Amino acid sequence: MTSNWVRELFEGRAAPPPAARMLGFELRAHDAGAMTIEVGFTAREEFTNLAGHVQGGILCAMLDSTLGSVVVATLGEDEWAPTTDLHTQFHAPALVGQVIGRGRVTRRGRAIAFAAGELVDTDERVLATALATSAIRSGGRPVAEPATSVS
Description:
Blueprint: H1 5-10, H2 18-22, E1 26-31, E2 36-43, H3 56-72, E3 79-80, E4 83-90, E5 97-108, E6 112-120, E7 126-135, E8 137-138
Antiparallel strand pairs: 1-2, 2-5, 3-8, 4-7, 5-6, 6-7
């Protein structure tokens, strides 16, 4: 992913990563100058717990995808930024349906970026908030090796 990734998403020349696609990620808005982003997610029935609410780990993944995307939009061509810390607070139960993620970079240095954001439902009820820290790396990004079967 490069700093052009968000623009490429808008133009239909790039797709979200597989985990974001699973969450129903849809880029809605991005302001490069303000370092903000708005994305949509689709909370599916498969994401619910026994109470019928979207499981908290899924909400964390949505927040990580939101905040990671807004940080990625600030990166140079050879940079990548893994999340090193994600602090999440849950405010209200999330139900199956549309979830909106909003994120902003609160500080961007040479080696570290901080982001904050929230998930809301279609009635603007805050579901969860998060603070994230990302380490900014340059050079080759590690590539996952395919899993091998054990005999």
